TrEMBL record:
Protein name: CDP-diacylglycerol--glycerol-3-phosphate 3-phosphatidyltransferase
Pathway: Phospholipid metabolism; phosphatidylglycerol biosynthesis; phosphatidylglycerol from CDP-diacylglycerol: step 1/2; Lipid metabolism
Keyword Lipid metabolism: yes
Lineage: Bacteria, Pseudomonadati, Pseudomonadota, Alphaproteobacteria, Acetobacterales
KW Ribosomal protein (keyword) present: no
Compartment list: Membrane
Membrane-spanning ranges: 31-48, 69-85, 134-157, 163-184
Organism, scientific name: Gluconobacter cerevisiae
InterPro entries from the UniProt entry: CDP-alcohol_PTase-I, CDP-OH_P_trans, CDP-OH_PTrfase_TM_dom, CDP_ALCOHOL_P_TRANSF_CS, Phosphatidylglycerol_P_synth
Pfam families attached to this UniProt entry: CDP-OH_P_transf
Protein family according to the UniProt entry: Belongs to the CDP-alcohol phosphatidyltransferase class-I family.
GO molecular function: CDP-diacylglycerol-glycerol-3-phosphate 3-phosphatidyltransferase activity
């Protein structure tokens, strides 16, 4: 149900997006530190909603659908905001473009497969991909200004975020290719089954 705590946590992750974008738009170290706190809380809900759903046996199709959507909305919105605010270093804008293309393609594939009554379960590599992306975005949200405010001026947070974002491209592309091949295989198998029933 939508009112189950795991689903509420997922909805809170989505609700944090406009707050984070607004804080980034302020362009101040204080706002960036607050954004990091909000973002960290949002990332924690990504772990808690699944863990609680499994522990309390509140697994549902709604929750299974909403969880990856919330992740994609959070990552995609923040990447767009960071790009618009020119806070993506080391040519990591291109990494963000690759990430967005992959997410849109996989989402479209999932939607088509759902129309064919087929599913495309999430993989462990895809979860690692999301985790690395979230770490990268955390560094990019805080940036050098927040690091300096927290007494970590020696830490090139923005550069680290850009490097992590590029690093996340590896599992992003590999898992995306895996989804594509798995999806096409299932679609072709499903069409073969339908053809055999018709011919019979």
């Amino acid at each position: 149900m939508l009112t189950d705590l795991p689903n509420i946590l997922t909805l809170l992750r989505i609700a944090s997006i406009p707050v984070l974008v607004a804080l980034l738009s302020v362009h101040s170290p204080t706002a960036n530190v607050i954004a990091c706190v909000v973002y960290t809380a949002a990332c924690i809900t990504d772990y808690l909603d699944g863990a609680l759903a499994r522990r309390w046996q509140q697994l549902s199709e709604l929750g299974r659908m909403m969880d990856p959507i919330a992740d994609k909305l959070l990552v995609g919105s923040l990447l767009l905001a960071l790009a618009g605010l020119t806070q993506l270093p080391v040519y990591s804008l291109y990494a963000a473009i690759i990430i967005m293309i992959r997410e849109i393609l996989v989402s479209g594939l999932r939607e088509y497969m759902a129309s064919q009554r087929e599913t495309l379960p999430s993989t462990r590599l895809a979860k690692w991909k999301t985790g690395i992306q979230m770490v990268a975005i955390g560094f990019l949200i805080g940036g050098d200004g927040a690091a300096g405010m927290l007494g970590l001026s020696f830490l090139p947070a923005t550069m680290i975020g850009g490097i992590f974002l590029w690093f996340s491209v590896i599992p992003t592309v590999i898992s995306g290719w895996g989804y594509l091949t798995a999806g096409l295989t299932r679609i072709m198998a499903g069409q073969s089954r339908k053809s055999s029933k018709i011919s019979f």
